[in-house]
Amino acid sequence: MANWRHEAAEAVGTETAHTGGTARVDGDTWQDLGAARTTDDGLAVDLRGTSVGTLLDVRLAGAEGPRGGAAVPVGARLRHGVLWLDDPGPVPPECDRVWARIDAADHRAALLADLGFAPLADRLAAGKPDRAHGDPQRACFLPGVRLIWGAPGTGKTTLLTRAATELAEAGHRVLLLSRAEQTLPVTVDAARASVQQQLVDIAGAGQRLAELRRLLADFDPSAFAAVQRRIDDQDRADALEAKLVEAQRVYDVAAADLAQARQELRRARDEWEQAEDGRRRLTESRALSAKLADVDAELARLHLKVERRRYRGRSRDRTSLYRMERERDALRQRVETATDAAISAERASALDTALSDAHHWLDEAARDESEAYTRVESLHAKIAQLRSAKPSEQDLRFHADCLDRGLPELQDEYDELARLSDEQAARRGQLEERLWWLGERARADRDERLVHTDRLPHGDVGEAFDVVLVDDAGTRSAAEVLAAVGLAKHTAVIAGDAGSPQPWVVPSLRDDAAVRRWCGATVLAHCGIRTEADARSHPGCYVLTTPPRRISLDATRGGRGAEGTTDGDGVIVLDTGGEAVRHEDIVASLPRGTAIIAPHRTAAATWSAAARQRLDLAVGTARTMHGAEFDAVLVDLVSDDWRVRTRAFASATTRARCTLYLLADAAALAEADPGTPLGRVRAAQADVRPVGRIGVPAPRATAETGVMTP
């Protein structure tokens, strides 16, 4: 067996080449898993009927892929073919598709070819596991490689899971190769949520811009503005009409004031002119009085000169004195006459003031009248100008329609968003790049002490585990189990059921001895275990003796399970009556969480298509459902009689915990040969019920407390 590793690796390589698989994974390749569906339980993608590898990263992105725009990292959980997504937080509207990096590579060949010191794998490849002794669970804690055989429901998975947890808690690094939900959590990051919200806001603005562009497709802003101006002009003209009335009133008052000022000026001028002679006499009186004062002064001087002493020329001066006295007397007479005919100085001043005030009043009144007139004429001209562009009835209808639809406000909003669009486009690219790198570090660190997976780990070749526990070895190829055991340093335990569906090999390779040995056979068969008796007699194999689950086709009689329960618990044959199966009706009436097991992939695809709206249902074949348990299971016996799939049928009928529905034609059951799957159903004497037009009938009412209705 020195070359078993090389031989097994070549066999796996041959199989991989024929099936179109790959031996390596390209971590930069993204796959479009489809559009995310919104359900009551959150976002989901229906992947039932497809083979999904190991999820490495999941993002919500657009049709261009995660590197073609925003890519929101999201936690995911793959359960029974449905990928359930955690709440991703704010998501840009274009991120409506689920993209994933998936490791779909077959690591068996690489692991086998690069195995170093692997004594456990060598012993198992030689068909010589270590001796089994003591409690089966203790085998998980003992050095060496050992086998565990157990019928479905005997607790193999529970035993391995419990042991793996205890070993990990004790500090050992454990690989548990068992059917499990794939979970891919992401860490909570406030910075990432902020970036996502900003992208949502920008995308919302972009969507709003596109929506506004659509709403404004038939709107002409310039035409609306022109109509609005004409309507506004009429409103302004109406307002100016009111101002014109007031301006006209002001003008009338100003005109009346001007007329009164003119009349007052005429009166003041008349009075002033009538007092012209009096003013002249007053002036004359003032002039004569001044002259009289000069004469009196001269007389006084002469009197003093003549009366003081005698001198030569005295007589001449006396003559002058007499003459001036006569002149003085004449002036006095004239002053008295002028004074009597003159007006008073106060009267003259009052007349001058009245005339000046009248002139000033006239000037102000004329100015006010001119301004008021100019205002009236200006308003008349403005109103005439505004009235010249009166809107038509069509303009008014167009304007009213635009206002009813809110188009002007929408246009203002569009202009503002368009103004910001270039800036937001540049900012969006920066945010998308930042979100990408935040997503790269968003994956939560896993507990590396316990690696629970259904596929060989995709880590670096050469990594090792202290303990390797393999479940469902009855359906895994010997090459896969040996590759896993080769990773164990101290302990390896392989559990399975020889009656499980065998590994599938393409028909074209079934004549290849190496492929048949390493890829088409199980490690149990490799060690000579094909039946329960073989397991009991094998020194390296434990046999679990725990009673299997109570829902068993062989343990059912008359609709009763192993413990005598009826109806709700047990096996129920749904009779189609020879009619075509109404898949949609049956799917719609199945209890929540039911599994539908079809005989082959074609039938499974038909059921999957009917169950597109029921993501709570698991759909597949016995091979894809092996290792899983459900409260209720429906096995399709109409699409195929399972005659050549006896192992698969045996596995399918052991998947139910409470209720096993067998969809079949009662007439075909009556004619079935003993030992065939249909013959086994007939021999079980299960309760037979017609399917009816509404699908699966509800269980009959019962007073037995042990009955569980699905």
From TrEMBL:
- Residue ranges annotated as coiled coil are 237-278, 321-348
Q: Where is this region: Disordered?
A: 1-27
Q: Which UniProt keywords apply?
A: Coiled coil
The name on file for this protein is AAA domain-containing protein
User: What SUPFAM superfamilies has UniProt attached to this entry?
Assistant: P-loop containing nucleoside triphosphate hydrolases
**Coiled coil in keyword set:** yes
